[in-house]
Amino acid sequence: MAEPLLQLSGVHTHIGPYHILHGVDFSIPASQLTVLLGRNGAGKTTTLRTIMGLWQASSGMIRFDGRDITKTSTPDIARAGIGYVPESMAIFTDLTVRENIVLAARSGPVEPARLDWMLGLFPALKRFWNLPAGNLSGGQKQMLAIARAIAEPRRLLLIDEPTKGLAPVMVRSMIEAFKALKASGETILLVEQNFYAASALGDNVIVMDDGRIVHSGAMREMVEDKTLQQRLLGLSLDAHQ
Amino acid sequence: MSTSPTLPLAFDEARKSGGFLSSLLSSDFPRSRILTFILLTILVVLAATPFLFSGSQPLSTAAKICVFIVLVASYDLLLGYTGIVSFAHTMFFGIGGYGIAIALERLGATWSSVAIGLLAALCLSALLAVAIGLLSLRVRAIFFSMITLAVASAMAVLASQLSGITGGEDGLSFQLPFELRPAFKLFSEPVMGVAVNGRLIAYYLLFFVALIMFLLLLRIVNSPFGRVLQAIRENEFRAEALGYRVVAYRTMASVISALIATVAGALIALWLRYNGPDTTLSFSIMIDILLMVVIGGMGTMYGAVIGATLFVLAQSYLQVLMDAASKALAGVPLLPNLVHPDRWLLWLGALFIISVYAFPGGIVGRLRQARQ
């Protein structure tokens, strides 16, 4: 069996006096979309931030493409090919849309074909190309944040709650964009609370609770198993639709 | 085929295609007609000051404006574009002044002394900026500010104590290279009624160096490097998550800012033919710089031009204006006392409080906002 692209083994994270992650273990296979589910405060965002080195794991190991990145600095993790889209529309509002994209393409100019592909995924950005990103709507900001993460080829994308606070129509276009990203072979770890969106996209699912992994498996199995949904998430897919 | 031909991607794409003026201003236009008019007026008046006004005070005021535009713009790179609050900016200004003063006093009044003094000052400033940056830019902003305040105070004390080298509290007076002395005449006859002597040459040296430094800063803040600084200012974690080494970028910004402040210090020393703790190292100059950046508009560069001009003009002429007003209101009760020239600092303070309230984004921010 091929080695997973990302592997977390017994990862513990403390933030100040608080013990947030309690021995998190999971792996992310290449070219698949894995959804990380869990209620508020379960430790999903902390997991992503720990992978990115924004919070240091106090113990355990994080391996990316066979390399130990547990103590690696955030810029080096990003340079290794991990793109991170934090929650809450994390863009640079003072810069224009173009500048946000160019800034993300650290290794050189964005290739025209890649730009076409990105703007095909998020056509709204084209209209606001030279305007300050702060002027965009919530959904457009989220699109820009994702476009920024894919401005240059990445080995793995970590995306934190992209549909949070978005109107249903915007959630649908976001789902379409992720489907296209998936089809292009990107490896994605997606934190999502919206089970409808998660189930439409995920190949695999990981469920967290109280800083621990409580379930890990194929998304298809979870979608088909209402009892499992009820037990792990407290509601069924039908309720979310 | 690309469907995005209208979406230039490189940061300097517009600069490449926008002609000479766009290239000169790094595509960063004032973006307000009133602002353009004010900036052009300042540029023309500064360029023509020796021919427009007689006497030494207007020329000295114009020279001081030129120097402070550079000094304030270099501080804007730190504060406005990178979000670093440093109190050590006058230290670098002082190093530039002392570099020139010590070299010209010790090595003789030659151009090579100027070059040696400037070079030594630039090296010292770069070293100090790197040391301060690497040691303290990792800590929280408030601690960084405190560290810079401590280092700047230590440097001021050192300059006062090392009187054998720096002249102590008295400072150093020195001779300039012959071509910059008032006795030097480039032409035997006056040009447009003005004698083209060493003083005039010194003024234009200041003017053109200041102009070049300002345009260089404009180029820096509009380069990819400048955009990364702005990104760091807005959210350093997001910038790190994109792969940018925040401490390295901040340190680089500190070094560039320090080097340009050093050049400004060298210019003021050349103009005054003197350097002392009060002229370049004083903490009150640091406060003035902060005020000029805030009044002009942080993170705009053009704010430095407006802020420095207004502030230096107010410092130089507010007393004169108040004297005239006091005399004009001689018969009116209370008012002549209120606008008595001795109370100029009170009015200067009041003016700044009003301007900060009226223009929270600075004058440039307000003018650009009005246009939108």
From TrEMBL, chain A:
Q: Name a Pfam family for this protein.
A: ABC_tran
Q: Which UniProt keywords apply?
A: Amino-acid transport, ATP-binding, Nucleotide-binding, Transport
Please list the GO terms describing molecular function: ATP binding; ATP hydrolysis activity; branched-chain amino acid transmembrane transporter activity
Instruction: Report the residue ranges that make up the ABC transporter domain in this protein.
Output: 6-235
Family matches, as Gene3D superfamilies:
P-loop containing nucleotide triphosphate hydrolases
Query: What SUPFAM superfamilies does the database record attribute to this sequence?
Result: P-loop containing nucleoside triphosphate hydrolases (SSF52540)
Q: Which GO terms describe its biological process?
A: L-amino acid transport
- Residues folding into a coiled coil are none
Q: Which family does it belong to?
A: Belongs to the ABC transporter superfamily.
Stated name of the protein: Branched-chain amino acid transport system ATP-binding protein
Organism of this sequence: Microvirga guangxiensis
Automatic annotation (TrEMBL), chain B:
Q: Which CDD domains match?
A: TM_PBP1_LivM_like
This protein's GO cellular component annotations are: plasma membrane
The entry's keywords: Cell membrane, Membrane, Transmembrane, Transmembrane helix
Q: Which residues cross the membrane?
A: 34-53, 85-104, 110-135, 142-162, 201-221, 242-271, 283-313, 320-338, 344-364
Q: How does it sit in the membrane?
A: Multi-pass membrane protein
Judging by the UniProt lineage, the source's domain of life is Bacteria
Cellular location(s)? Cell membrane
Q: What is this protein called?
A: Branched-chain amino acid transport system permease protein
Give the organism's phylogenetic lineage. Answer: Bacteria, Pseudomonadati, Pseudomonadota, Alphaproteobacteria, Hyphomicrobiales
